[in-house]
């Protein structure tokens, strides 16, 4: 069945460091891919999305490219800020099933 | 613009009690779903609905019932609460299963 796997956390970085959070997916069809962010005590918010191969989603300095050949959707940011500290979830949707699949989440801590 | 509204925000139950978690959206979304979020496990899909009158099971449906009598509302019922159901519950909605989901702020449920 469909699934999403993302790197274990927590990830601890200093401010202005480069961020990569790995995400890979398995799907029987051609899913759309998403990154969500969850700040403490809040619900999930959509960060970016990509709906087909080679699409690049971007928002607030974050980017992720839909790589069909490697079934990956890694999240990157060139220079993180303390305010980026949160839990990040990779997700897939569509394909052959009417369901969303979420990764287990990666907690990011950014220190000043 | 309310988005997805969940009530209550917090609830404590005793084992064996029943209750209903409410979820309402005002965006005319067809697709609605319930997730539970447990530490280290990300989000797991409980039940989902692709439109009024249609519901289906997700990954962890046991112990929960849902109904979808209107497009706006998607309540989640716990029939006989168990400590294993202590979790944070999120309701989400989207236009279709292949579009970004909008999340409510969550209901933190404790079963004693």
Gyration radius of chain A, rounded: 13 Å
Note poorly predicted spans of chain A: none
E-strand count of chain A: 12
Order of helices and strands of chain A: EEEEEEEEEEEE
Number of DSSP E strands of chain B = 11
Percentage of residues in strands of chain B: over 45%
- The overall pLDDT average of chain A reads 91
Name the overall outline of chain A: globular
End-to-end span of chain A in angstroms?
41 Å
Shape of chain B: globular
Helix-strand makeup class of chain B: mainly beta
What summary fits the major beta sheet of chain A? 6 strands, mixed
**Helical coverage of chain A, percent range:** under 10%
How many helical stretches of chain A?
A: 0
Q: Approximately how much helix is present in the residues of chain B? A: under 10%
* H/I helix tally of chain B: 0
Based on secondary structure, the structural category of chain A is mainly beta
Please tell me about this protein's structure:
The complex is a heterodimer of chains A (112) and B (112). Chain A is globular, with a radius of gyration of 13 Å. Chain A has strands at residues 3-6, 11-14, 19-21, 23-26, 31-38, 44-50, 56-59, 62-65, 75-77, 86-94, 100-102, 106-111. In chain A, strands 2, 5, 6, 10, 11 and 12 form a 6-stranded mixed β-sheet that branches. Chain A has a 4-stranded antiparallel β-sheet with strand order 3-9-8-7, with no helix packed on it. The model of chain A has no long low-confidence stretch (mean pLDDT 91). Chain A is mostly beta strands. Chain B is mainly beta and 112 residues long. Chain B is globular and about 35 Å long. Chain B has strands at residues 4-7, 10-13, 19-25, 31-38, 42-51, 54-57, 64-66, 76-78, 87-94, 102-103, 107-111. Chain B contains no helices and 11 strands. Helices cover 0% and strands 52% of the residues of chain B. In chain B, the strands form 2 sheets. In chain B, strands 2, 4, 5, 6, 9, 10 and 11 form a 7-stranded mixed β-sheet that branches. In chain B, strands 1-3-8-7 form a 4-stranded antiparallel β-sheet, with no helix packed on it.
């Amino acid at each position: 069945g469909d699934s999403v796997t993302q790197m274990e956390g927590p990830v601890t970085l200093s401010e202005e460091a480069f961020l990569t959070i790995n995400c890979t997916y398995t799907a029987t069809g051609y899913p759309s891919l998403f990154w969500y962010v969850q700040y403490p005590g809040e619900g999930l918010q959509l960060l970016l999305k990509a709906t087909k191969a080679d699409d690049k989603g971007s928002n607030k300095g974050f980017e992720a490219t839909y790589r069909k050949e490697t079934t990956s959707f890694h999240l990157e940011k060139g220079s993180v800020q303390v305010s980026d500290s949160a839990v990040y979830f990779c997700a897939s949707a569509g394909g052959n099933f009417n369901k969303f699949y979420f990764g287990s989440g990666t907690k990011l801590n950014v220190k000043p | 613009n309310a988005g997805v509204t969940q009530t209550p925000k917090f609830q404590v139950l005793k084992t064996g009690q029943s209750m209903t978690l409410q979820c309402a959206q005002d965006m005319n979304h067809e697709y609605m779903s319930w997730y539970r979020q447990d530490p280290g496990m990300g989000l797991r899909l409980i039940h989902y609905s692709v439109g009024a009158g249609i519901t289906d099971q997700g990954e962890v449906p046991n112990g929960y019932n849902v109904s979808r009598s209107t497009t706006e509302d998607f309540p989640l019922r716990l029939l006989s609460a168990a400590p294993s159901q202590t979790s944070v519950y999120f309701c989400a909605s989207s236009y279709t299963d292949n579009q970004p989901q909008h999340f409510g702020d969550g209901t933190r449920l404790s079963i004693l």
